[in-house]
Design a protein that fits this description.
About 50% of the residues lie in helices and about 10% in strands. It is built from 21 helices and ten strands.
C-alpha cells in the first residue's frame, strides 16, 4: 500500500502509475481536504486542529441522519475527489486503502438533538476549551449508520484495507482507559465487555464493506492500552486487528516512511531525506512477506524511497554493510560515482542530527510543538508578553496550540503537558542535543556544497541546491528552539514582582541574567533575519506554508510568514529596554 498527499488528480494519477511499477496493490485515498469548518465553529479553541485532518466517515460521507450537521459543500467535495481517485485506480487495476480517525467527534448539535448518540468524551484536557464527544458505538443506531456509511464509501471506491487512529486527535472508544480524559462513556453501557465493544464497532465497518461486495480488513491503532489489546485480540474475527495484532498473534503490518509531520522530527522543513532510516525500514519490512506493507511518500517528487525499493528488488540487502552498499548505489545513480560518497556522508549526518533531536520529545516532536504549534518561530521573545498590543501578538496568538489560559499561552515552555525543556537541566540537555544536531546539519550542507560545485546543470543539481537551502532553514529552526528554550529558562528564574536594585556606585556590573538575555535576543533577531534571507532567496518552499491566509492553522504557516518574521524582529527591538524593569543595569 502506498500513500502520498496530493489534492491534484493529475498528480495522483502520476503517483499511482509510478508506484504500480514498484509492486503496489493498494493506494490510500483518504488524504482529503481538512475539515476546517470544525475549527471555525469556535476559532478560540485550537483543539479541532488535531482532528480536522482525520478522515472520519460521518464528516466525509455523512448518513442522512447526520448530513444536516455537516457542511454540504465539504462532503460533496470529498465525494467528488473519491470518485476521481476511484476512476484512476480502476484504470490501473489497483485497490484502495483508507486511513482515518474513528470514532471521530461530531458537532455538539448532533448530541443535543439525539442524546443517545453521545459517546465518549475525547478531547485533550490541556489543549481544549470545551468538551468533544465521539459517537456512541454502544448504540445500535450508530453502528447501523457506520455500516451504511462504509458501504457507501466502498461502493464509490474499492477500499479493502482500513486503518484507524483512536483515543487520539478528536476520537475515542467508549470506556477505554486510553481516552485522554480517562475512561468514560454512556452510563447505561459501562458494563459492556471491551472485547465486545471493539469487535462490534470494527465489524460494522467490515460488514459495510462486505455489503458493497468487498472483503476488507480493519485495524485500530493509537492510544490503546496494552492490557485492553491483550484482552480483545484473542477474540478478534478474521480480518480485524488492533495495533496490528490479529487473533493469530504477532503483527500483520510494517511500514516505510520519511516520517510525515509527526514522525520526521524535522517538520516544518519539507523534503529532508532520511535515507539511513528508510534503508533499515525497507530491509526490515521485506522480511515480513505475509503482512501488509505500507509505504508513505512525503510528496510525489520524493525519489529516494522508490530508488531504495528498486535497489532492494535488484539486490536484497539485510545487514548494515549491505544497507550501506545499497545507499551507495542509490547515491551513484543520483550524483555519479565520484560524488556518491559525499552524498552518503551527507545522508549520514542528517541521520545523526535527527537522532539528536528525536529524544527531546514530550507529547510530540520538539520542532513541531515549539516552533510551529507554539509559534516560537514568529513569536517575539519579550519579557512582558501580556503587555503586547493586539497588532504585536494577534498574528501568532490565534495559531498557538494553547487553550486553558493566557498565562499558559505566555509561557514559552508550556508545550503539550510534558515539559522536558524546562529548568536548568532541561534546557541544558535540550540545547546540548540541538547544538550537536546543528553541527551535523552544517556538515551535511558542506558535503552537498562540494557535490553541487562538481555537477553540471540539471535536475539533480537543482534538487541538491534546494536541499542545501532546506538544511540551512532547518538550522534556523533548531537555533530558534535553542534561543527560545534558553530565554524561557532565564525568565523562569526571574521574580517579576521584585524591583531591581539600582546603584550609582562605580563600577557596578549588570545582573548576569540581563547580559545573557541581551545575547539571546540579539542571536534570535539575527537568526530571524537569516531565515528571512533564505525564504526570499528560494523559489521553492523551504517551510510548510499554505498559499491562502484562510488555510493557515496551528500546523502550517501562512503566506505572510516573511512579514510576520519581520514583525517579530521589530517587536523584539522595540522592547529592548523592558528588561531594565527586571534586572540591575551596569553603571
Amino acid at each position: 500500500m502506498f500513500s502520498c498527499p496530493t489534492d491534484n488528480i493529475a498528480d495522483f494519477e502520476e503517483f499511482v502509475i509510478r508506484v504500480k511499477k514498484l509492486g503496489a496493490t493498494h493506494i490510500f485515498v483518504s488524504d482529503l481536504p481538512k475539515s476546517r469548518w470544525q475549527w471555525e465553529m469556535n476559532l478560540n479553541d485550537p483543539y479541532p486542529n488535531w482532528s480536522m485532518f482525520n478522515a472520519s466517515i460521518f464528516k466525509i460521507l455523512p448518513p442522512p441522519e447526520i448530513a444536516k450537521y455537516i457542511p454540504e459543500e465539504y462532503y460533496k467535495r470529498n465525494i467528488e475527489i473519491l470518485k476521481q481517485r476511484a476512476a484512476v485506480l480502476k484504470k490501473q487495476g489497483l485497490k484502495a486503502a483508507f486511513i482515518g480517525g474513528e470514532p471521530g467527534w461530531l458537532p455538539e448539535a448532533v448530541y443535543r438533538d439525539h442524546p443517545g448518540w453521545r459517546g465518549a468524551r475525547c478531547e485533550h484536557p490541556r489543549r481544549a476549551r470545551q468538551a468533544y464527544f465521539s459517537p456512541n458505538i454502544d448504540n445500535p443506531e450508530i453502528l447501523k449508520m457506520y455500516r451504511e456509511a462504509y458501504k457507501k464509501l466502498c461502493s464509490i471506491v474499492p477500499v479493502e484495507y482500513f486503518d484507524f487512529l483512536t483515543n487520539d486527535s478528536g476520537g475515542g472508544i467508549c470506556w477505554s482507559e486510553g481516552l485522554y480524559p480517562g475512561a468514560n462513556g454512556p452510563a447505561n453501557s459501562k458494563g459492556k465487555a471491551m472485547k465486545d465493544r471493539y469487535i462490534d464497532f470494527m465489524s460494522s465497518i467490515k460488514q459495510g464493506a462486505a455489503d458493497a461486495g468487498l472483503n476488507a480488513s480493519v485495524n485500530l491503532f493509537g492510544s490503546i492500552p496494552k492490557f485492553e489489546a491483550d484482552a480483545v485480540c484473542p477474540s478478534l474475527p478474521d480480518g480485524l486487528s488492533i495495533m496490528g495484532r490479529s487473533a493469530k498473534g504477532g503483527t500483520n503490518s510494517s511500514s516505510i516512511s520519511m516520517g510525515g509531520f509527526y514522525g520526521s522530527n524535522v517538520y516544518p522543513v519539507p523534503g529532508i531525506p532520511q535515507m539511513f532510516k528508510c534503508v533499515k525500514q525497507v530491509a526490515e519490512a521485506f522480511k515480513n512477506n505475509e503482512g501488509d506493507l505500507t509505504i508513505s511518500f512525503e510528496n510525489i517528487q520524493s525519489t529516494e524511497i522508490a530508488l531504495l525499493i528498486e535497489q532492494y528488488i535488484k539486490k536484497p540487502y539485510h545487514d548494515f554493510p549491505e544497507q550501506v552498499e545499497a545507499l551507495s548505489e542509490v547515491a551513484r545513480q543520483m550524483v555519479g560515482t565520484e560524488n556518491g560518497p559525499d552524498l552518503v556522508e551527507a545522508w549520514n549526518e542528517i541521520y545523526l542530527a535527527i537522532n539528536n533531536i528525536a529524544p527531546i520529545e514530550g507529547g510530540g516532536p520538539l520542532l513541531l510543538l515549539g516552533p510551529v504549534n507554539q509559534r516560537w518561530l514568529t513569536r517575539p521573545l519579550v519579557p512582558f508578553q501580556e503587555e503586547l498590543k493586539p497588532e504585536e501578538r494577534g498574528y501568532y496568538r490565534k495559531f498557538q496550540f494553547q487553550a486553558n489560559s493566557e498565562a499558559e499561552a505566555n509561557d514559552y515552555n508550556n508545550l503539550q503537558g510534558y515539559e522536558l525543556t524546562r529548568g536548568f537541566s532541561g534546557q541544558y540537555l535540550s540545547n546540548q542535543l540541538l547544538g550537536f544536531a546543528k553541527i551535523n546539519i552544517t556538515t551535511a550542507i558542506t558535503r552537498i556544497g562540494k557535490i553541487t560545485q562538481k555537477l553540471t546543470d540539471g535536475n539533480n543539481k537543482e534538487d541538491l541546491q534546494l536541499l542545501a537551502l532546506r538544511l540551512k532553514t532547518l538550522n534556523c529552526i533548531i537555533e530558534n528552539a535553542i534561543n527560545t528554550i534558553t530565554y524561557s529558562y532565564y525568565l523562569d528564574i526571574t521574580d517579576k514582582s521584585k524591583k531591581p536594585d539600582e546603584n550609582t556606585g562605580w563600577h557596578v556590573p549588570a545582573d548576569w541574567r540581563l547580559k545573557e538575555l541581551q545575547v539571546i535576543t540579539r542571536a534570535e533577531i539575527d537568526n530571524t533575519n537569516e531565515l528571512i534571507t533564505l525564504l526570499e532567496l528560494s523559489k521553492k518552499p523551504l517551510l510548510v506554508q499554505v498559499m491562502n491566509k484562510s488555510d493557515e492553522d496551528i500546523f502550517q504557516f501562512g503566506p505572510d510568514l516573511i512579514a510576520e518574521l519581520k514583525k517579530k524582529a521589530d517587536t523584539m527591538l522595540n522592547h529592548q529596554m523592558d528588561y531594565n524593569r527586571l534586572y540591575r543595569r551596569s553603571n
